[in-house]
Amino acid sequence: MNAPLDAPESSASAAASPGPGREAASQGKSLGQIAWLRLKRDKVAMTGAVIVVMMCLVALFAPVIVKFLGHPPNEWHQEMIDPVLSTANEPWGGVSAEYLFGVEPVNGRDLFSRVVYGARVSMLIGFLATLVSVVIGTFFGIVAGYFGGWVDSLVSRAMDVFLAFPLLLFAMALVGVLPDAAFGLQGNALRIAILVFIIGFFNWPYIGRIIRGQTISLREREFVEAARSLGAGHLHILGKELLPNLVAPILVYSTLLIPTNILFESALSFLGVGVAPPTPTWGGMLSDAVRFYNAAPNFMLAPGIAIFVTVLAFNLFGDGLRDALDPRTH
Amino acid sequence: MITYILRRLVAGVGLLLVVSMVVFAIFFLVPRVAGADADTLAARYVGKSPSPEAVAAVKERLNLDDPIAVQYAEFVKGLVMGTDYDSGTDVIHCSAPCFGYSFNNNLEVWPQLVDRLPVTASLAAGAAVIWLGAGVSIGVLSALRRGTLIDRAAMVTALAGVSLPIFFTGLVSLALLSYQWQIFPPGGSYTPLLDNPLEWAYGLILPWLTLAFLYAAMYARMTRAGMLDTMGEDYIRTARAKGLPERTVVTKHGLRAALTPIITIFGLDLGLMLGGAVLTESTFSLPGLGKFAVDAIRANDLPVVLGVTMFTALFVVVANLLVDLLYVWVDPRVRAPS
Amino acid sequence: GGTDSGDAAQNEAVDGIVRPTDEQGGTLTFAHSNEFDSMDPGNTYYAANWNFSRFYARRLVTYAQQPGEAGQELVPDLATDLGEVSDDGLTWTYTLKEGVKYQDGSPIVAEHIKYAIARSNFATDVINKGPTYFADLLDEDDYAGPYQDSDLDNFEAIETPDERTIVFHLKEPFGEFDYLATMPQTAPVPPDADTGTQYQTEVVSSGPYQFDGQWQPGSTLTLVRNEHYDPETDPLVRNLPDEIQLSFKQNADDIDNRLLSGDLLVGAAGVGVQTAARGRILRDDNLKARSDNPKTAFLFYFAINPNVAPFDNKACREAVLYGADKTQLQTAFGGPTAGDIATSLLPPVVPGYEEIDPYGTPNHEGDPDKTRAKLAECGHEDGFAANIAYRSDRPAGQKAAEALQASLSEYGITTDLKGYPSGTYTNEQAGSPEFVRQEELGIMIYGWGPDWNSGYGFLSQIVDGDAIKPAGNSNISELDNPEINKLLDEAAQSQDKQRREEIYARIDELAMDSATFLPFANRKVLLYRPEELTNVFVNPNYHMYDYVSLGVAQN
Amino acid sequence: MTNASPAPTPPVTPPPVVSVRDLRITFPTLEGPLTAVDGLSFELSPGGALGIVGESGSGKSAASLALMGLHRATNATVTGDITVAGVDVSRADDATVRAMRGNDIAMVFQDPMSALHPQYTIGNQIVEAYRTHRRSASAAQARQRAIDVLDRVGIPHPATRINAYPHEFSGGMKQRVLIAMGLVCEPKVLLADEPTTALDVTVQAQILDLLEDLRTDTGMALILVSHDLGVVAGSTEDIIVMREGCEVESGDVRQVLKSPEHPYTRDLLDAVPRLDLSRQERLARLRTERSRARESGTGSAHVTPAPHPSPRGPVDAEPLVRVENLRRRFRVRGGLFGRASHFYAVDGVSLQVHRGESLGIVGESGSGKSTLSRMITRLLPPTDGRIIFDGHDITHSSERALRPLRRDMQIIFQNPYSSLNPRRTVGDIVGAGLRVQGNRDSRAVKRQVKELLERVGLEPDHYDRFPHAFSGGQRQRIAIARALILNPKLVICDEPVSALDVSTQEQVLRLLAELQDDLDLTLIFVAHDLAVVRQVSDRVVVMRQGRVVESGDGDAVYDTPEHPYTRQLLAAVPVLDPEEAHERRVERQRLREAVGDEGVAS
Ligand SMILES: Nc1ncnc2c1ncn2[C@@H]1O[C@H](COP(=O)(O)OP(=O)(O)OP(=O)(O)O)[C@@H](O)[C@H]1O
Ligand SMILES: Nc1ncnc2c1ncn2[C@@H]1O[C@H](COP(=O)(O)OP(=O)(O)OP(=O)(O)O)[C@@H](O)[C@H]1O
Ligand SMILES: [Mg+2]
Ligand SMILES: [Mg+2]
């Protein structure tokens, strides 16, 4: 009854190498190369990838972009604002060649610059938090799956505990009670560190479960036993035999976790427990924009669409990556 | 069967206990690490301008000077057996499960939780019906029409659905549908079901749709993936070889198997959501548990935060328990030794 | 464009009574975006609730039912007259009217008022949300409150020689004692009905309306007529509607929309409409005509704490005062409809106010030269770093903090914004000197309104060195100037209104001179009165519509 | 038609019940269209039996599915004419084809484990098949009918077992259920696609016997698809040999098997392991072939033709492996709610393996062979007993203490797909042993690996490839190379060829024999296929339910089996001669009655 365990792998191989006499068709190409070939063919995923790369560049080169296309993100332009109504003098929230997305009500800050700078926080937190989740999740997942027994029980119960928490509430509460300066960090650096840690830390069970499941099925494969019979220790087996097989799921779930984390950060900012102002964040802008939904729709749309496009791009790419790496989808 | 349920129950209670410890530690220990002391905690019970005497009195009354372990034991005792509180005029009994009294309005937390549950439950139940219905049918359709225009359109919509922050969709739909065109009632419109079922539904349509949009998208994707997997299984071929009509093959054989794992996720989602659909309730100002919790967190109202968190954990644990039992029923393999 | 043309009609209810009537009937609906701290009249510190609770909790004294200055007059309510003060100023005596009854028809007796004050001021372990002026002023040493000491006779500072007489003995003279008698804490509470913190669920009414059954906090509060209320005993007309409904935790924007559409009659919090509705009202002359934009006695300012470096140096504080662009602060705060630019502590609506602007700058836009000079004087030519604390859940305050940050940054003063929940802001962060020092909160935004409309009511908590507390401190500038402290004491004890007002103006000057206050806005609120609302005027003490006067138009 | 009248041409030819003309099936793939079946034609008369044989991937299943019309609505392109029971499968509308499926022609699939829906009772699934085509039947009637067919296929207590779920049945029983499901509407044709590939020999024999019985009793026609000529030989009248989608030879079974015309058929025949060939004969044949090859200069390079010592080492010398009374207990959860219970997968096994010897272990699935092998290599700690390897008692040695000994004992696994790490290159996989054992000189490692790759018949420049680029046979060679790189004294082969095609199997066995010859290896060879074991072992141990039931000299066990179980195993092996197959069937019947019906439950 060992068929189900390695069904995907063996069916893929069976298709690739039909008979003993015939040479395999796709010889020489590594699975990674095959995946890349497939990915390249997936227009939608590639679009996602291009946008992701673009957004990363935007985040990275925000100062340069803003220098040429906007105004400093924290610079006030009250001349753009009607003091009585608090909204832009010009229609459409002041959208013009000078202010590409218009200006923020009340203080006339350049929305374009703020959206561009907002990408920094979102991306930074999205990536770092994912890294934290992946590291913790992979470690515990692999250890639980490989050693089984009480280790597995312990880790699995811990994951249950984490999954039973209302994550958002918890993060909110935690951000609220944590001190203002710690670990030699303070201000926004600390805030970001805390957010990264909380988001990352509370998301690890999702990836942990996947890795654990994969590890359990891998552990049953005979190559693990073969390694043991050669005298390999646990470290070798975990690192050299199992980990390479987990790279694909880790990669896929990372790309799918990043957008989730970006959304999570924006939700926290929206609820007012994100990065402190005036640092622009998309969620924070949205939460400010609520009050001006009718008078300045551009204020709401600019960060909203930015979140949407970024998250969508990551999702598209992640989806494509999953398909490309999945041996079943031929 | 009985032993199984008992075992699961014990495990659930254990889980709750651990959750309560962690939550308690975070809310009572972390602030202390961060510099708050018994005085500041006590001050939270006192109004706008607390006098030192008032603070001291509260501290005394709530035993805030005790070691944390003792306080935790008290808390658990309150949960299980209830606690007596001195309300001033006489001793009032906060009966089990007692989550203590809100810092803010001096009211027992538990009845307030129970009070807000119907809102959240209405929100969750309505949304769940929509998202399960829509998500699953779209997912099935997409899987069956794999690669066609319908499939692509459905999946792009689904991806959009999971990529849109719920507060954004909520806000935009409120701005347009409620305020601009006034098709739907504005945020915060909640009528209890028993008062007027029509009003109830009308007031909740927008939150339902917003919430369901996100989840339907997720479920459509999961269903599609599950259906693609199961429709490739050998037993589907067997069913076809029996001469069954395609509809039977898809629903009775394919969907049944594809839905089984979705039950787990649904249970977890629903459990978490019953603890408060935080963003939706905040966006639509629905007086449910999520909004309650957010307000409480903003006001640093620890007993309430603790209560909602525990309440949610309880729902998750119970939902998981139910899912486990349901699983036994839908998937006979679970009964077999693995 | 249309911001000027509608001015004629705006503010109609500030200067006069709109649609005056004595027609009874209808349901008066209120909605609150949050909830009151407690509906217990002895346990609340919200102006709006002091205003609202008059429906069911009559006090010894109240305000005349008039708009404008006339409305600041005190008139006896349950008492037959204003307080009668002894020559040494230490004893105040009130006599109750005859025939005043509770909702169950039983008579209101002086001892119940004594009891109400005992529970609200001396049982701070239980009832602690309201102010404790009585505890501070009464000549009482070791009374433990009615819950620990059920013998009311041990509470010696208040005497009730007979059922209708109540005598207060003070430690020191206090000229404005009648104002204290307007507080809801003087509303009578029958000891038998008192359930401590839970009294809020079944307050025993002494006014024209009573709770409709036991009320569950958080749910809609319905008030129905109190049969035993006798309008003859009441100086005010406050019984027009048949029923009053107050719902809580409503979405703020939603409240505005319902007000504008006439679904709802009053926004209970009394803080005016939100940004979104403000835009709509100000753009539409018809709507604008139905709005009022009264000044309030609420001041917004930044406290500059002299115990946090570099603000221990006065020149550094002055640099901030000269560097701030108040027009920017005003816009950030919501523009002219949200507040006038403030130049000193005392709000213009407080009697005795004198206009001064000790740190004035051209057009209020800041004075670069003076700022630089002061920076040089304090030894930081190129600026310095500081923190600005604000309430993270108050958007206007946050924007103001950002505005200050923006204008200071021009002088190299870099600031970090530190947001704290408003729920604990006064108690644990800005109001905790220890915390302020530890986190180096040099600049803190704060808002302050008087508990009653006088200089003492306004100033005593925020400039009095004796009022500095380890937690819940309101004097967050930590100003401890002996001269100010002395003047405050003198004002308190003086029976001479004229003299008191002179003193307040002097304190204002002295406090400003300490350079620990950067006042920037005297709040104004934009109120909207739906057409169905009758008998509307702005109460000059609470700075919102006078709730108990309101009626509902009958077709 | 019955098996009593094997005449190829009956006097009156009734119209064929299945006729296929010029069938062509093409699948679109990433590498372009793939023609899985290419111009296949055949006919099947009512009551006839047709065998379709061919190696894996030759298009057998694709063709079978086409008969059922199961390529409809997939992306496969099917051309040609298919007529089944009067229905033109390629042109009829969906409803007609559906009415035909299960009713006129029923199919039994390759893998019984996955062909049944896990969430419905078997009764439900059979009843469903019945009521689809017999709409007038009441629920009670359908249920009765299901019980009847279950009874017919030999499920004990069908009236109660009808409520069981598939996972509660063994593989053989599931296959019976599938057959019952096929029978329930009394189809004219039963199409069995490798119905026994996933099963043990004994179970395989039972299923084949059952099919034969059914055919005789009900008169339905049978199409039997298999890659094993032995399976087809005993159960069909006509045969088609397929290769790469084309028919290479067809005709009467006897004719084709006796005098195959096409070389491919001959290769297939040669590859079938022969039970009647002793190890000595096989060794002799092998050696002559090799020396012949060497003379002509085409053989593998560095072979020392050291005359093989006596196959059995000196009896008095200390054996390389001594196992005493070894037991291994496992915990099984008794269902979802029950308490856990214990059972012994290996229960008191004692055996010895001498240096240079090769010991065969046979037994059906679950008899504890793998558990035993894993205990000998200490991949699994034993519960009881002693293991002495090369003079060391390793029964309870720590992993650290074992590490140096691991050089000397290696294991080759059953499944070449799961025993190679798909994410590591061949070089890494083979060289792992050296690296793990502390050899840090990567240049030397690489050289050694390349040499060994060549030795096992792979190209040295396969070094950097990943396993997925190799066929099953090639993979097993990699696995062999991995096992040999440390020059072990003992190699345990746990069913190294049972996942392979007959022809590949032959190549791998040949390689193993050569290596043993050249490197003086001691082998433990585990298999469930008796014929395979016979060819490679000096001594044979027969296991059943964790115990050794018989052991002894290889040829002796085969020629004069003592234990009835051994006899039953032997009788179950399919043979190529249809006449002999018939005799064996009778013999099996007798033995089954003697041993009892235990086989069914396995
Ligand atoms: N759905 C499909 N898509 C693409 N190629 C397919 C598909 N089904 C089968 N093939 C290919 O068609 C060829 C014939 O497959 P088929 O399953 O008929 O072989 P088989 O003879 O039954 O082999 P086995 O003995 O392994 O079952 C193989 O090369 C296989 O990879
Ligand atoms: N880890 C385990 N836990 C529980 N039971 C096990 C475990 N490993 C093996 N078994 C059981 O022990 C018995 C013997 O298994 P083993 O794998 O040794 O059989 P085998 O003879 O190798 O069979 P096959 O021919 O199928 O490989 C089987 O019933 C199996 O289910
Ligand atoms: Mg096949
Ligand atoms: Mg085995």
TrEMBL record, chain A:
Domain ABC transmembrane type-1: start-end pairs: 119-318
Chain spans, region Disordered: 1-27
Superkingdom in the source lineage: Bacteria
Compartments it resides in: Cell membrane
Chief site of localization: membrane
Chain segments annotated as transmembrane: 44-66, 121-147, 159-178, 190-211, 250-275, 295-318
SUPFAM superfamilies hit by this protein: MetI-like
Bias type Low complexity, positions: 7-26
Entry keywords, A to Z: Cell membrane, Membrane, Transmembrane, Transmembrane helix, Transport
InterPro entries linked to this entry: BP-dependent_transpt_permease (IPR050366), MetI-like (IPR000515), MetI-like_sf (IPR035906), OppC_N (IPR025966)
Membrane association type: Multi-pass membrane protein
Family according to the record: Belongs to the binding-protein-dependent transport system permease family.
Record-given protein name: ABC transporter permease
Automatic annotation (TrEMBL), chain B:
Keyword annotations from UniProtKB, A to Z: Cell membrane, Membrane, Transmembrane, Transmembrane helix, Transport
Membrane topology recorded in Swiss-Prot or TrEMBL: Multi-pass membrane protein
InterPro entries membership: BPD_transp_1_N, MetI-like, MetI-like_sf
Transmembrane segments: 9-30, 123-144, 156-180, 200-220, 257-279, 304-330
Pfam families assigned: BPD_transp_1, BPD_transp_1_N
Location in or out of the cell: Cell membrane
Domain ABC transmembrane type-1 per the UniProt entry, residue ranges: 117-327
Top-level taxon of origin: Bacteria
Coiled-coil region(s): none
Name of the protein in question: ABC transporter permease
Taxonomic source organism: Salinactinospora qingdaonensis
UniProtKB/TrEMBL annotation, chain D:
Keywords, comma-separated and alphabetical: ATP-binding, Nucleotide-binding, Transport
One function term, GO molecular function aspect: ATP binding
SUPFAM superfamilies, sorted: P-loop containing nucleoside triphosphate hydrolases
Basic and acidic residues bias: start-end ranges: 286-295
Residues of the ABC transporter domain: 20-269, 321-570
Gene3D superfamilies attached to this UniProt entry: P-loop containing nucleotide triphosphate hydrolases
Superkingdom of the source species: Bacteria
InterPro entries recorded: AAA+_ATPase, ABC_transp_ATP-bind, ABC_transporter-like_ATP-bd, ABC_transporter-like_CS, Oligopep_ABC_C, P-loop_NTPase
Disordered: annotated span: 286-317
Cross-referenced Pfam families: ABC_tran, oligo_HPY
UniProt record similarity statement: Belongs to the ABC transporter superfamily.
Protein name per UniProt: ABC transporter ATP-binding protein
Origin organism lineage: Bacteria, Bacillati, Actinomycetota, Actinomycetes, Streptosporangiales
